[in-house]
Amino acid sequence: MYTSASREVPSTAPPPYSPRPNAAPSDTQRGASRDDPQHLATERSPLVKPSADSPSPKTYTSRRFLVCIALLVLVVLAHWRPGDDALNPAVRARLRREWDVEVRAHEALRAGWETERLELVAMRDQLLRDRETWANECEANRLEEERRKQEDEERVRAGFAWEGLRGEERCLRHAAREYTARITNVPREYDPVRACTETAVEIHGLRTDGPQWCEDRGCGVVLGHWTVDYSEPTCVTYFDWFKDKGCTSPGSGRRRIESPLENLQYDDDWRTMCSTTPADFRYLHFDSPDMCENWGQYGVWGIWEIEDRGC
Question: Where is this region: Disordered (predicted)?
Fold first, then answer.
């Protein structure tokens, strides 16, 4: 029986390097013994041995430096002129003439710039004047257009008319009645509701600027509504005489006064008419009764409870 310790594991490492058998000796190995390990070729041995005649890196650096110096000298010689000696009077005179020419050219250039600047300033001022003139013309045209439009509207509004002005059968409240009328002669391009609000009317000899409100019923039918609180005698209800009913209760400090409502029309709303009718008695003014009662055949009565210290 074999155990794992007795087994031999084959090695996977490559065999050691050795020269090829029967190979010719290289130049480095000539004259040396085959058995000398220092002269044997290995994997790291260079294929080409450096020659003794090859220049070193220092030699290359020196040559490049000399070439740069030579080029610099050539550039200086190319730009140097023997006649540019500042101490030479002729050279100074020539330089002065050249400088004068440059100065005159510069002054001429500056004069041209100044001329262009003045032209631009004049152009800017002219543009500002033209803009102001254009703005004034636009404003004048706008005002003229508004004036013509207003005249046209006034001419159109002058043709508006109210048709069928009448008062309601029932009074609206004390001394007030509602009136209605239809606005007519309104062109199609004009808003009939606007025509209604802008058209004056005369009722009972008094002229009003426009209705309290306008009702648009469609199809160009617009009605104006007015509340007339003057010259409506049939709507003027009043309390004629006042009846003292005594104290409301002992110690209440209140006294009850009653009065019948006069001039109440058959179709009028008795509650509205009574509650909006003022009264004056015992040197006091009341805008309306405290209560209103409809006692049938005895009519509508207003009731007040006034302060009385005697109660």
Answer: 1-58
